Amino acid sequence: MSDASARTTPGTSDWRTLCKVRKAAQNASIPEEWKISVPPDTSADVRSVTEDCGLLSPRELDIIDLGTKDVSVLVRLLADKHSGYTSVEVTTAYLKSAIIAHQVTNCLTEIFVEHALYRAREVDQYMVERGEPMGPLHGLPISLKDQFTMRGLETIMGYACNIGKFAENDCVLVEILYELGAVPFVRTNVPQTLMWGETHNNVFGRTVNPYNRKLTPGGSSGGEGALLAMRGSPLGVGTDIDGSLRIPSAFCGLYTLRPSYERLPYHGAANTLMGQESISSVLGPMATSISALKLFTKAIIDSRPWDHDPLAIRKAWNEDEYRLIEHGYGKGMCFAILWDNKVVRPHPPLIRAMNMVKEALEKEGHQVIDWEPLNHIDIYKNAQTILVADGGEEYRMSCEASGEPLITSMSPDEDPHPFDLEVSLVKSLLWQLHTEKRALRKAYLDHWNATTTRTNTGRLVDAIISPAVAYTACPHGLNYDSFYTTLGNAMDYACAVFPVTFVDPKLDLPVDPHDFHNHEDEAFYKLYHPDVFPGVPVGLQLLGRTLEEEAVIGMVELVDAAVKKHAFDRV
Amino acid sequence: MSDASARTTPGTSDWRTLCKVRKAAQNASIPEEWKISVPPDTSADVRSVTEDCGLLSPRELDIIDLGTKDVSVLVRLLADKHSGYTSVEVTTAYLKSAIIAHQVTNCLTEIFVEHALYRAREVDQYMVERGEPMGPLHGLPISLKDQFTMRGLETIMGYACNIGKFAENDCVLVEILYELGAVPFVRTNVPQTLMWGETHNNVFGRTVNPYNRKLTPGGSSGGEGALLAMRGSPLGVGTDIDGSLRIPSAFCGLYTLRPSYERLPYHGAANTLMGQESISSVLGPMATSISALKLFTKAIIDSRPWDHDPLAIRKAWNEDEYRLIEHGYGKGMCFAILWDNKVVRPHPPLIRAMNMVKEALEKEGHQVIDWEPLNHIDIYKNAQTILVADGGEEYRMSCEASGEPLITSMSPDEDPHPFDLEVSLVKSLLWQLHTEKRALRKAYLDHWNATTTRTNTGRLVDAIISPAVAYTACPHGLNYDSFYTTLGNAMDYACAVFPVTFVDPKLDLPVDPHDFHNHEDEAFYKLYHPDVFPGVPVGLQLLGRTLEEEAVIGMVELVDAAVKKHAFDRV
């Protein structure tokens, strides 16, 4: 027993045991027949192991090759019932390949062979029965960063405290992937806190780069990076709050897209710095083939993620923009290169790479100019300060929950790196409120979605009509009502107000008191005397869904026209 | 001298004087010939004063009538060079009408007759010279809430401390309105702090409801409410963080649209709770005619506000959605009515109004059902807690800057209203960071926009190409670089990473040290030895603009194809 473990305080042995048990469970989830003879540590580049180990049949190796070169070709084959490729076969090939990758790079967290094959069979059965694919990702195995919650599985996300917490629901992304016919088949490793550009944690350990195991695959989507570089997945999904898609993609030779905030649906995924909405983490595809970017992004957007995620932006896939309609249709464009951001200068390979791009573009008839950096250090400091605004409170709490130590260096010898930008630590309770608000928005959205069972249109309720204020224009000093308007702000629904009639003391007689909801309700009740308000206008509110301004205008015009047409029916 | 003023502390006389002088300046900005004989306070409904006072000619009254009934008709006349209507004539009519409205409701802040008429002449001149309208709002006078900054004017926004601070720039909305041919002609009153549903402040005093001057017009866009109800503007622009468009519209018989966050461009406008992005204030049109909603919203969106406001969502006006394509094209829809939100029950006039709507819709063949409220009190409390998250710090600082007291009640007799929801006060420094980030994003956007002068395409730079990381895959523990990726996160640019080549020690030779930017730059320089990195991939990053995922994918495919095509040119 070392000195370190002799100093073990009560509780700390628990996290070590917990991690050991969890790691053993992971090992046990690997089928015995898929265990390979792992090359010695001195073997740096392990990429050929997939083929050399002999676990995959020639046909399975062909499948892996296909998916590596162009995932869209693999998808086309899976969608063609006469192609002879089934999801079970493709998923099996990738399960084997992923598990090989894991054994040499430690890239996986959740390994669920039976679950994945069950899903693949379901998808194949669909094809047999209907003769058509389930969706644009029919039968495709997809790997997921260890944030994308799946019902029945833990989401360890680099913290021992998450061991044994099994999810009750799929996150929205996984729901959509199922809708589209995909087959989630493994989840991939991340660093503790998610806020490192490498991939190491106390539960699953360190992920290494298959190009050279002495090197990092980057992070925080480093498990994906290593897996994909090993040809262990045709398409992976990672996340990016500060480079976490792009760093491992750059380090592992992959393609990725980091979409803007809220274009793709993050709701329900586990995350770090929960409730921090100043710089939102985003999800995106990672792959060895470039076709994965459009395939994945278009498929997800075409599924209308805004119907499921209250924060996802309601904005359809625009094929014209994809065709560069706003960029000269891709002809005679002008590119700018940032050679040096005046914070750190790139290494020579990057300068060369940029020169290669410059030349290639110029040969294609494009202009290439220098990009002038502006405020890069200010931008960086601002962003980093935002990202530590809780003073590390969440990290500490997540560690304390299990007793595991906070990892303060990604170095194997645990030497803290001296690099420090001296960001000031601040505290914010806003994040808790964001989290609460997000949950409330989701609940309201689900609630609205559930109205299909109560309409006879086959659709949801189209709009809500309500007061804008509980009363009409009231005496100075007495208006304290935003009870009817706050909903629109907090849920961010597009809504309109329109005038309907005027207070008429003959028609608007006081009513008997009801069972008051609360003190304010009573005060409001007592406020009403028809003689105080005669002739003042009575407006109402129409609420549509988030980003539905046009429809709200159209609907309020329709409502208004209808009201006007029949205004005198009742009087 | 009353007891209250006897207790006046040093400095407080300054704010009183300041406000008195500013109010006198406002009075002085009213042309003498437009001053009317104001009816006595006992005259509650003052709406007929516009006509009765005799200031407007019959033709001017016809113009006001036109704009009141249907602003789009007025706009069509202004856009028709043969109609006989000029912007000067229309603007003059509305200036008179607005100034009449102000004299009876105290609805205005900035009155700039000469400036407005100068602009109207400019627009008319454009028509004479070009024979066509300047834009979809050609010649239209538009009133603006006292938040929409205009170059050369103060933006008092309800605080004495803003007296004497003259803006150097127009806000983005005003820039766009000028582009579209509009004529901003008055600005309208707001409450101190903007966070009241009424309209009163120490500088300009209280705005009253023209339907009944004993009543409030609502707030915080209450100056607009009163002005529009007086037919003093054909179209106004207000804002809404918690009901501020909808309350005065309901109270003053107007139409409004509260769009979702960031659909319309807020950048550069003054605001309360600066940097608070959890529940964003939005701007929207207010008018007596429903056509104003589409007219204004479509015109602003068609102007591509996202080109000018980094937070504005890049989402085109969709005429199909306006035609209710997703709502059965407006046929056989289902509406739901929220009769009572279980917090406060609406007054009888509102119940009746809802019944009128229900009947009208049912007669038109629509289904009308009850809306079941969900969590309304939780939603309300959450939102209110967010809105006081700085513990009132900004209000206090804004008041302390001039010495004026914080208004704690909207009641004329200053009795504090007992109503209190007991929201807990919290503190957050995040808001300061949001403010800083917003300014940095704007600066970067302007910077990018300025590249038109350096390209030969007639457009901006189409995309930025840069490293994703300053180096390639590095040894464990040494990756501390997000200097190249943070830009994308903080600016929220869509960006992609793509592989270009591999490190080749023969080609990628070390270079001599440069003049290091800083310690990190030096450390990174020293990190490079080609022998450490042989054969590892070299990826790059392509950055597009916010919400430009499709174009980024299209561009990275193009770049990638070009790189592949010419990969061996150089080697």
UniProtKB/TrEMBL annotation, chains A, B:
**Catalytic residues, chain numbering:** 145, 220, 244
Every Amidase domain range: 89-552
Query: One short Pfam family name for this protein?
Result: Amidase
InterPro entries with a match to the protein in the record: Amidase_dom (IPR023631), AS_sf (IPR036928)
| Single Gene Ontology MF annotation | hydrolase activity
> Which keywords, in A-to-Z order, does the entry hold?
Hydrolase
Q: Which family does it belong to?
A: Belongs to the amidase family.
Which named protein is this? Amidase signature domain-containing protein
Identify the species of origin: Boletus edulis BED1
